Amino acid sequence: MKKSxxxxxxxxxxxxxxxxxxxAPAMAQKKTLAxxxxxxxxxxFTVLGDGCALWNKENASAEYTCxxxxxxSSADEAGEVQIVEDLINKGVAGIAxxxxxxxxxxxxxxxxxxxxxxxxxxxxxxxxxxALRKTYLGTNNYDMGVLMAKHLKALNPKGGTxxxxxxxxxxxxxxxxxxxxRDTISGKKGIDRLKGEGGWTEVAGCPLFTNDxxxxxxxxxxxxxxxxxxxxxxxxxxxxxxxxxxAYAQVTDQVMPKLKSKELxxxxxxxxxxxxxxxKAGRSHAQIGQRPFEMGHRAPAVLIDLIxxxxxxxxxxxxxxxxxxxxxxxxxxx
Length: 334
Known about the structure:
Blueprint: H1 2-28, E1 31-36, H2 43-58, E2 64-69, H3 77-90, E3 94-97, H4 102-112, E4 118-121, E5 136-138, H5 141-155, E6 160-166, H6 172-186, E7 200-202, E8 208-209, H7 214-227, E9 233-236, H8 245-253, H9 256-261, E10 265-269, H10 273-280, E11 286-289, H11 292-307, E12 316-317, E13 321-323
Parallel strand pairs: 1-2, 1-3, 3-4, 4-5, 5-12, 6-7, 6-8, 6-9, 9-10, 10-11
Antiparallel strand pairs: 11-13
Helix pairs in contact: 2-11, 3-4, 5-6, 7-8
């Protein structure tokens, strides 16, 4: 009797082991949907990655998994290109890219001619290279610049001097915002530098390029405030300086009387919690917010549609939020 029980138990154990071994390859063979950002050191992209993580949680039984990745530093443009190339070589199912250096990314994509669907997220390729990707998911960056200009006009209709702070020189999304701002504030299309158009002039040494570095962004702001005591507006086209709240507070401390009197206007991109705290404290006058969580959460579904040959609109815009002191209780939109 005891021998029979042991034989039955052994048979059941063997069957269970066989089932687990059979299931293991399937579990290990989840197809990868990669979301590659400019840098893991940027809190904006951390929020985008949270969207990717939620998709995984909501789709635990799916045949796909969302992989959030990128170079450790946002300044590592070559590293981002290499990560995407490695993913192509591995044969992942699809890739969503926020290209830091759009021309360099396009050059690699042309050389590799990947078979899997490629889309852009947050930042696009240059207009001449957009046939290399299937769609763009993210902010209408030109419109983001337009809104920055409209808020500046409302706060200071007379004009004056302005400094714009940009990110990487070759980032298409940042350049689109700058174009939207200049076109709107000047009333003319195609202005590459403000020289009195619309009453606004860019000060010497501007625009600034942060290379997406928080410490550099704050140092640049401080230097500009020191060298230009009569500056009328500082436009953070992205939120870099504000991503370091302590440093940003120290920098804006030196101009707080001007901020309070609106002799100096600060308008910034994005609406992460530290940035809304800065707005509430009077350290900025308007925050034009993107929706990074939505980008990361939607990207896997868009890639799956592309993999399955479905028609996908191009572009796919995620909307903008306009946060000012009077609507902070309702901004950003949920």
